[in-house]
Known about the structure:
Elements: H1 2-8, E1 11-16, H2 18-21, H3 30-45, E2 49-54, H4 57-65, H5 74-98, E3 103-108, H6 116-131, E4 135-140, H7 158-169, E5 173-178, E6 199-200, H8 205-210, H9 223-235, E7 239-244, H10 250-255, E8 262-264
Parallel strand pairs: 1-2, 1-5, 2-4, 3-4, 5-7, 6-8
Antiparallel strand pairs: 7-8
Helix pairs in contact: 3-5, 4-5, 7-9
Amino acid sequence: MAKKRQLDAKRIVVKVGTSTLIHPNGKVNFHAIDQLCYVLTGLVNDGKQVVLVSSGAIGVGMGQVGLHERPESIPAQQALAAIGQSGLMSVYQQRFSLYGQRIGQILLTHDVLEYPLSRQNALNTFNSLLEWGVIPIVNENDTVAVDEMDHHTKFGDNDQLSAIVSSIVDADLLVMLSDIDGFFDKNPRKYSDAKLFERITKIDETALEAAGGKGSKFGTGGMMTKLKAAQRMLENDKMMILANGQDPAIIFDLVKGEPLGTLFVKEEK
Ligand SMILES: Nc1ncnc2c1ncn2[C@@H]1O[C@H](COP(=O)(O)OP(=O)(O)O)[C@@H](O)[C@H]1O
Ligand SMILES: N[C@@H](CCC(=O)OP(=O)(O)O)C(=O)O
């Protein structure tokens, strides 16, 4: 049943993190970006409507100014994002054009959902692009999104942004690519006996603890924002798959319903 829902998914949001797009040495991972552009174009050519939520602006910006460490200062990160975003888009432009695929850039903040007019305006833009067969490429508008200000936004969280985008466009499926094979019962980078969850039907205390949440024995990592994204998807009765983005061609298998990564889906009645 869930497999059929994956196969039938018409609107798909794909989120890629910096770890998929940038090598640990700070260089752009052209192979991964090429694969990503090839696969997403393949999906569009197969009749799907695809939105890409892509991080990487700060990473590309660091490469452009020759920084090896991400600065702690938020304004410095914002400046790097401003530098890197255009570089990132120019790589996408170049690589997607190899496959004849058109793209558009959308920069959003997390609070777009809270303002009906902003939400509607965003939806209108997405709808036009998707109807024209264009892939919208979304990133957070890092210039205006700042941590813990009177905005309800949190800087640098494209995981939740991808769930917000999924909700705006009413996507059936969110494919979240990360640097890990899925969601485990504890952090596999610390515990070699960690076990992969193949399916999660609700985000409960056990899941939050495994992700390094409050009171966790296992701590660390960016799993919490991924679980929050999954929670949003489940609340809207939509699916999310968390899988390893090392080889973005995995997306072909994921949309076919192959049992890879962790599938977040509401329990079937
Ligand atoms: N229960 C868990 N299952 C899987 N990964 C976990 C878990 N708890 C913590 N992590 C950590 O979360 C990391 C993935 O999050 P993050 O580094 O933010 O990835 P990305 O750059 O793809 O957004 C993993 O590499 C791992 O170190
Ligand atoms: N918007 C910023 C980072 C956002 C973010 O969530 O990064 P990541 O954890 O790599 O998905 C950028 O493009 O660099």
